[in-house]
Amino acid sequence: MVDSIFSNLCADAAPSFLRFFDLSIAPTLLYYAYIPVVIISLILGLFIFIKDKRSLVSKLFLGISILFSLWVINIIVQWVAVPTSLVHFSWQLTGILEVPIFLLSVYFVSVFAKQQDISLKSKLLLSLFYFVVLFFTPTAYNIPSFNLADCQGNVGLLWKYIYALELFCVFWIGFIAIKSYKNLQSNSDNKNKIVMMTSGIMLFLLVFSASNIYGELFKNYEINLIGPLGMILFIGFTAYIITAYKTFNSHVVSGQILVYALWSLIFSLMFISNITVIHYVVAVTFLLAIAFGILLIKSIKREVSQREHLEELSYQLEKSNLSLAEANDKLKGLDKLKTEFLSLASHQLRSPLTAIKGYASMLSEGAFGSLDSKQDEAVKRIYTSAQGLTNIVEDLLNVSKIEQGGMKYEFAPTSLSTVVTTLYNEMKVPAESKSLDFSLEMDNHDQFIVSADATKIKQVFLNLVDNSIKYTPKGFVKISLKREGGNIIFSVLDNGMGISPETKAKLFEKFSRGEGGKTNTGGSGLGLYLAQQIARAHKGDVTIESPGLGKGSTFIVTLPASGSYPN
Amino acid sequence: MQIRNNTILVAFLLLSLVCSVSFTFYKTILKGDYIIIKDQS
User: Fold this and answer.
1) Domain of B14?
2) Do the Cβ atoms of A442 and A400 come closer than 8 Å?
3) What's the whole-model pTM score?
4) ipTM of the complex
5) Contact A74/A90 with Cβ under 8 angstroms?
6) Residues 11 to 40 of B: which have CB under 8 A from any A CB?
7) How far is the alpha carbon of A76 from chain B, nearest alpha carbon, in Å?
8) Among partner residues A4, A86, A130, which is closest to B30 by beta-carbon distance?
9) Domains of chain A: residue spans and CATH
10) Is the CB of residue A40 less than 8 Å from the CB of residue A260?
11) How does pLDDT run across A395-452, given as a tens digit for each residue?
């Protein structure tokens, strides 16, 4: 084997390192240009991968970085290997390493832009492109002959396919980017990232294949020394976009990337043996260090000023929180005063109203002598209006009791069927006076026992039925009582004026009036609020269903049929 | 199913890669089966 390896040697070299390599024949700048590229590429690939091990984008980026590093190492071997067989072997492997960089880039951009894995069909297509390269690599279509004069291989037909495929991949990436850019309409942040990422990758691949094709056409391989340096910038750029995209801390990441780049450049200074070029190389490194340094200082300054700004904001926030807390305490005090006032005023109003109602009733019954029909009508009006006022005062009093936490409930097993039947009989008169079809649907064999304060629950039901009758000019009002799972459902269905979705959201608030409030001015706007509060105190709830204005509505009270007695 | 298909595809590609590299190694390094030209132009 060794004999066959050393049967031919490149003319200008003598094997010194491990008998296979002559490290001195490479161009002076080879190590300075290539070694940082390998290190930075691997560091960035691993860095992104460690940040998010599960993400497909990170895995693909690591794959591209590793392949790119292997490709660069393979090129170094081509420069420094001495036996033609080894140089030739290395030349033949170039396609195997180069093509998947392009194919994986297509895969990478696709996943990055669409945020999902590609289909199995696309994977098979990409694999097929690569399989052709794998199949023809050992054949004479790859590198059929080797020129001993310049120690270079001569490329075969396979390389026409490879160059065409590389250009095709670049266009493919452009196509994917344009397609996803068009699909993303609103999110401009993502659009920018896709544009930056694809232009970075396309430039990287174009520089990559252009320098290879140029070297091949003009037999000038020195250009490859510059190519990878340019490409590493794009790898860094891509890494930065990924980190920014993944919302890692981009300032820290860019700082880290710059420091890694600087370390590798300084490290590779060690590989320069030629003293005449060292001045230039140090000068370049110095310029790069200045550029990186300025960027780093800027980034740190920005970071510090942002932190100061945040501190200032947090101080202001704390201050406004304190004043808000003070204002809140004041408001609570005012609210308490308001409730107390309401309660006192209602009490004071109730006593004269009782007197008015009492005397009106006595007058109407003829306790102070008989009245003619006109007088009787006037007295009856006084009684009805006083009754209306009493109801409003009662509502106000109840609200203030609820808000003060002073509403007392006397829970006892209550038959809802009795409550609802009584209610139905009471409301029959007002419903029929408006010629409404008023009906009750209930299973007569069920008592519908719940733990409730009978008076208060009747008030809830009465409120809802009264509302339905009030806001249904003609048609029907239907009451029903039924069981549903562990609950008892009381519902009032009508074909009245209905409720719009906007009103529905506010209907259970205090002093809120539905559309009917504009025509019926008698209500306080507290009825539904009270109904819901009382139902909730019974571990139940009140809800409304309405298809819309003019389409009727259904009020539903849900109460637990059995279980613990609320305290 | 998707994961199984992916595994089969990757396994197939890796196998092809190993075969291709081994065969190239055998032909080039072990057998030295390539044309050497000494073109000075």
Assistant:
1) 1-41
2) no
3) 0.54
4) 0.92
5) yes
6) 12-13, 16-17, 19-21, 23-25, 27-32, 34-40
7) 18
8) A4
9) 2-251 (1.20.1070), 412-560 (3.30.565.10)
10) yes
11) 877 887 777 777 788 888 888 888 899 889 888 878 888 888 999 998 877 788 888 8
